[in-house]
Amino acid sequence: MNQNIKPLTAINVVLAAVILISLIFWARQESLRVGGPDQVKLDHAGSIFIHISDKLYKLSPALDLLGEYDLAELGIYEMVGDFAFFANGDMLVRLGKYEPGLLESIARYQRKADTKAPVAERDNEGLFRCKLDLKECSPFGAKRLDFDSAFHLSIDTNTDTVYLSDTGRHKLRKFDAEGNELVVQSKGYKFPNQNLLHNNKLLVADTNHHAIQVADTSTENFGKIVDTRSILDPALGRNTWPYSLAKVGDQWWVNNMAASMSHGTVAIYNDEWEFIKTVELPENADPIDFAVLKDRVLITDLDNIRIYLSDFQGQIVNDPLPGEITLKLTQLNKDRQDYKKLGYGAVGLFIAFLMAGFIIAIRQARTQEEPAVSQASESLSININDPNIKWIEVNKQKLRIIKFATFIPLLLLPVIPFMLFEKDSEMALMPIVLTILIIALAPLFTRKLLTLGIGTLGDVLVIKKSSKEYAAGKGESIYYSDTHILIDKVFVPFNGQQMLFNTEQVVKEIMPLLRDATYVQSGQMMNMMLKRQKLTSIFLIFLSVVVVVTLMLREAYQ
C-alpha cells in the first residue's frame, strides 16, 4: 500500500534544510562583512589615515599611533568610496548606510553605467565635511551630494578644490571648497577610479581603458585628456585593470587588478611609464591602496586583512605597525575564520543531512510491502525482436528537436579551456564542473530517450529501455502510476510518452491494457523503482548530487 509521510515529519525536514542553508549563507555574508584595511590617505601635515573595518587610524610618518576614530560615531556605517583631507584637516567622506537594491546590485555587477543623479535622499546621507576630533560633520554643498557607489577623491590643498572620479557614471567632477560643482567631464573615461594631482595635471586610473589618463585640471578644459599612459605588459597576465596609483620617488606604482576587481598586482613603471617589475607581495595578495612615506610604501590588503611595508625597490620590509592596529587585524582575521568555519560546518551538516535522508529513503523503499500479484499474472517471457510486436510510432518531429538540443551543450566545449586557465580558479571551478556534467549527461539522456519503446503483443504490454532491458506482462503484473509503467524490473516514463510517441496510438492501443493493471500512487511507484535499481547506480546518482550541491554551496560561500 502507499506510504504516507507524516505532515509534521515533512515540516521538520524542510525546516531543518532551510535552517542549514540559511546558516551557510548568513555565515558567508558575515565573513564578507568583516572588512579588512582598504583606503589609506595622507593629510596636508603628512599624517597617515588607514581605514580598517569600522575604524579609522591616524599614524605619524614614523608609524606611531596618533588617534583612533570610531566611524559609527560620525554616522559612517559602511565606508563607500573614498575619503580625503582639506588643508585645515577636515575630512571629506560619505556618511550613511550602504543599501543598494537587487536590480541596482546586478547592474553594478554587470558594470552598467549608473544613471541615478548624485543627490542625497536622506538628511544624514551623502558627502559631508567632518572634523574628526570634534565628531562634527556638515553637508558638502548646498545641493546635498551623494555618491552611494564607487568614487575616488583628491583635494588640491592650495585651493581646497575637490576632484572626484564618479566611477559608476564614467565621469570626472570638479568642486570648489564649498561643494559647488564647477564642471563635469563625461567623455573619454570608462570606470575612472583613483585620481592623483601631479604637476598641475590630474592622473586618472581609467580602469576599463587599461590606462592612466593625464587630464587638464582647468575649469575651462577640465577632464580633457592630454596624454594616455598604457599600463599593459605581458608580465601582468590578466591583471590589467588599473585601480589606484602613486608617485614613488622617480617611479610610478599602479595597482592593476584582475577582471574581478580584486587580487591584483602592484606594478612599477619608470618616469616614462615603461614597465620595470612588480612588487613582491605574498601569493593571493589583494592590494587595494598605498601611501608613500619618506622611504617606504604602505600597502593595504583587503581580502587577507594585512598591511605591508615596502621599500622603494618593491621589497617587503618587516617594520612593525602599532600594536593597536596589529591587534585589530588579528581580531578581524579570527572573526572571518570563525564565520568561515561556521559556514563550512553548516555545509558538512547539510551534506550529512542529505546522506541520512538518502539512506533512510533507500532503506524505506527496499523494505516497503508491494501490492500482491497472483501467480497467474506474473511477467511474461518474450523475444524482443518478435516481428509481431506492434510498437507505438515515434513522434519524429519532437525527436528531431530532442536530437538538436543534444548538440547545444557541445557549444560549451570551446569555453572550457578558458575556464581551466582562469587565474581565479575558485571562481571557475563550479562553471567547469557543471559544463562537463551537462556535456557528458546530455547525450546519455537523449540516448536513453531514443531507446525507449512501448508496444503490444496481442493482449500483452511490452516495454523496453534498451535492447537488453525489456519486460512484458498483462493484468496485475503491470504496475502503473501517473508518471511511470513498471513490469518486473523494467520501468519507463508513462505520462511523458506523449512527447515521444503518437498520442492517438497510445490512447487506442495502450490504455485498454491498463484497465486490469495495478495502479499505485506516484510516491509508491518511486519506492518500487528504487527497490529495483542496482545499489551501485543509486550510489553514483547520490554521489553526483552531493558533489554538485557541495560545489554550489562552496561557490556561493567563496
Supply database-style keywords.
single chain; 558 residues; four-stranded antiparallel beta sheet; elongated
Oligomer: single chain
Largest sheet: 4 strands, antiparallel
Q: Count of DSSP E strands?
A: 32
Beta fraction = 25-35%
Contiguous uncertain segments of 5+ residues:
422-428
Shape: elongated
* Helical/strand content category: alpha+beta
N-to-C CA distance: 46 Å
The portion of residues assigned to helices is 25-40%
> Which strand order does the major sheet show?
1-2-3-4
Instruction: Give the overall average pLDDT.
Output: 84
Radius of gyration: 33 Å
Q: What's the helix count?
A: 10
Your description of this structure?
This protein is of the alpha+beta class and 558 residues long. The protein is built from ten helices and 32 strands. The chain has a four-stranded antiparallel sheet, with helices on one face. A four-stranded antiparallel sheet has the order 5-6-7-8, with no helix packed on it. The protein starts with 6 loop residues before the first helix and ends with a helix. Residues 422-428 have low confidence and may be disordered.
Give a summary of the structure in a few sentences:
It contains ten helices and 32 strands. It has 558 residues and is of the alpha+beta class. Mean pLDDT is 84; it is low at 422-428.
Could you give the topology of this structure?
Layout: H1 7-33, E1 37-42, E2 48-52, E3 55-59, E4 65-70, E5 84-85, E6 91-95, H2 102-109, E7 126-131, E8 136-139, E9 151-156, E10 161-166, E11 171-175, E12 181-185, E13 192-198, E14 201-206, E15 211-216, E16 225-230, E17 241-248, E18 251-257, E19 265-269, E20 275-278, E21 287-292, E22 296-301, E23 306-311, E24 316-317, H3 323-367, E25 390-391, H4 396-407, H5 415-420, H6 425-451, E26 453-457, E27 460-464, E28 470-473, E29 478-480, E30 484-487, E31 490-493, H7 497-500, H8 503-510, E32 518-519, H9 522-532, H10 535-557
Parallel strand pairs: 29-32
Antiparallel strand pairs: 1-2, 2-3, 3-4, 5-6, 6-7, 7-8, 9-10, 10-11, 11-12, 13-14, 14-15, 15-16, 17-18, 18-19, 19-20, 21-22, 22-23, 23-24, 25-26, 26-27, 27-28, 29-30, 30-31
Helix pairs in contact: 1-3, 3-9, 3-10, 4-6, 6-10
